[in-house]
Protein: HPP transmembrane region domain-containing protein
Amino acid sequence: MSDFLGIEFNWVSHLEKIISAIGGFIGIWLVIAISYSFVGHDAPLIVASMGASAVLVFAVPHGSLSQPWPLVGGHVISALIGITCFKLVPNAFLAAALAVSLAIAAMYYLRCLHPPGAATALTAVMGGNGIELLGYQFVITPVLLNAAVLLFVAIIVNYFFSWRRYPINFMRPQPTSPSSLPTQLDLSYQDLEYALKQIDSFIDITEYELAKIYALATQHAMKMSLQSSHTIKLGCYYSNGQYGNHWSIRQVIAESSANDQKKAMITYKIIIGQRRRQIESCTQEEFANWAQYEVYQDENSWRIYK
Structure:
C-alpha cells in the first residue's frame, strides 16, 4: 500500500527538518512584507507560489529544481508569459491555461524548470486588480524581488550547515582522478540506503532509482570500453543487454584482421536469442556497437564478466 500511495521513507534527521522549517519561516515572512507593499490585498496569491518555492529551496536545497537559475528564471519567465497572456487573450480561462502551458514549455527549453513558476503564471492572469494595475512591473516587483529574497535567505541560512550549503555548487567536491575510483562493484540496496542516510538531506530520488542509474551507467561504461579499446576477444561471449525475447548472447568463433579496423570481420555463433545456433558475420565495429558487455556462464546462469 505504501508503494502504491508513493510514501517514501527518507532518513533525514530531526535537525535537518527543523532547519528547513526555520528557513521557510524567514523567507516567507520577508516575501509577505514585500508583496503587501506592492499589491496590497492581492498579495496572498503571490505568496502562495513563493511558499511552494520555499519548500524546494529549504527542504530540498540540492535538488535540480531548487537551484538559483530555476528559482529566479522560472518565476520571472512565467510571470512575463502570464502578463502577456492576460493582455492578449480576452477569455480568462483560455488565458490562464495558455499561460501555464507556455510557462512549462519555456522553463523546459530555458533549463529553469521550477514547478511554482506555473503558479506565478496563473497568478499573473487571475490575480486581481492589484496585479492588473502593475502590468509588466509585476515581473520585477514583486516577483523578481521575492525570488531574489528567497535566494538570498537560502544562501545565508544553509551556509551555516556544511552538509546543506546552497546552491549545490558550494557542495561539489574537487574532481577525483578516475584511477582512484572503485570500478565494477556489486552494490546492494542496503549500500545505497546507507549512502542516502549519510548525506542527511532530502534527495528527490529513491534507492531503486539510484540503483537503476548505477546499473545503466555501468552498462554504458562497459559498452564504451568495448568500442574504444576494441577488446572483442576470440572465444568469448557477449550480450546485448536487452530483456525478454530481445536478449541475446553471441560467441566470437573467428576473426580476420584488416588494415582498416572498421573493415576487420568477426564470425560469431548465436548462443541465446533469435536465430539461435546460427553462425553469422559482421565487422568488428558493428559487433562492438551491438555488444553491451562480456558475459560468462556460471553453473546454469550467465553473469557479466568483470
Observations:
- The chain has eleven helices and six strands.
- The beta strands are 237-239, 249-256, 265-272, 279-283, 293-298, 301-304.
- Confidence is low (pLDDT under 50) at residues 174-184.
- The first strand starts at residue 237 and ends at 239.
